[in-house]
Amino acid sequence: MADEFKKIVDFKNVSGIEAHIASQGEPTLYSDLVRLVARIKQISNVSIISIDTNGTLLTTSRIDDLIKAGLTRINLSINAIGENSAKKIANVSQGYNIKKVLDIAKYVADKIELIIAPVFVPGFNDSELNKIVDFTKSLKNKKFEPKCC
After folding, report:
1. How far apart are CA 88 and CA 22, in angstroms?
2. Model-level pTM?
């Protein structure tokens, strides 16, 4: 993937390119993610490396590894703050730990740029949006101001 991305970057021949890692599923399932980020970091003209994630598979050590490899921003999908609402919108009855995801958000916010990127489903998580915004406002980073929505 990094080799093909480099071909596109070379073809474009412009600086300030963002390499955005997203997928139809959860990108953190990709076992060589840290290596991919490191290889993208080596490509000249790439200034931002970002990823979309729901945060469930992130740990502090994995975040540290990704940052060391060159990751500059995480777009974290937090769709609800309340435990029941979070599980409902994730369509799981078990295995989704919103407290862990919120803790991950706090950790990331102290390290690199963070965007909280909720998926709004009218009639489903309307009552959670203000809570998400309030949570985002509570995050502090001297270098980067966490953003929401």
Report:
1. 23
2. 0.89
